[in-house]
Amino acid sequence: MTFLSPSLLMVAALTLHLAAAVPAVAQPGETVKVVTLGTSLSARGGWQEPLRRSLSACLDSDVTIVNLAKSGMTSEWGLTQIDKVVAERPDIVLIEFAVNDADVTEFMSLSRSSANMTEIVSRLRDSKTRPTVYVMAMNPVSGLRGMIRPFLGRYEEAHAAIARKLGAGFIDHRPAWGRLSNEEMAKAIADGAHPDPATTSRVIVPGLVRALAASGCLTAKKE
Fold this sequence. Notes:
With about 220 residues, the protein is of the alpha/beta class. The protein has one domain (about 5-210): SGNH hydrolase (Rossmann fold), CATH 3.40.50. Helix content is about 50%, strand content about 10%. Helix 3 runs parallel beside helix 12 and helix 7 runs parallel beside helix 9 (about 150-165).
């Protein structure tokens, strides 16, 4: 199992803090629509419904989440889905493709991945509805699936740099995963890549809510 060094964890935590400065578009009480676009980590991650409930309670708003992610896809496929995402008229778009772009069997160079992500983020942010866009780094990958992704960290950091450059948010889930013990991690990500939905929701949903509700939860303010 591969873990982040303390220094990288600190940088990642700072990145998450900075991402929270990119506010969600909808105001409290308004309907919020979120679209998720990415790989199997989103397509069958199981975290969308827990996020919907938590974000709805936080914002005191109706929240809808449309999951347009697809297992096995890379950012090359993501480019073909932009019109479909825009057609949903989302307030927020969550994107992750690093884990498959970094798979050496996909023959996706870092420069090509970066170009794809730049176009995806740019076209979404320049679309008519101008959604708030967040790029995400997901869970660690180990075992055989980790071996075929030896430079995953480079792809994740490249995607993070693109988000910052283009004024999008970057939500880094790696520090949250890093707080699990070796035993917890091995149990949660039994196949080395796909965490079980219950653990995924427990680990990443709090960070997502903090980032998407940048001004803080109304429930917390009322208390």
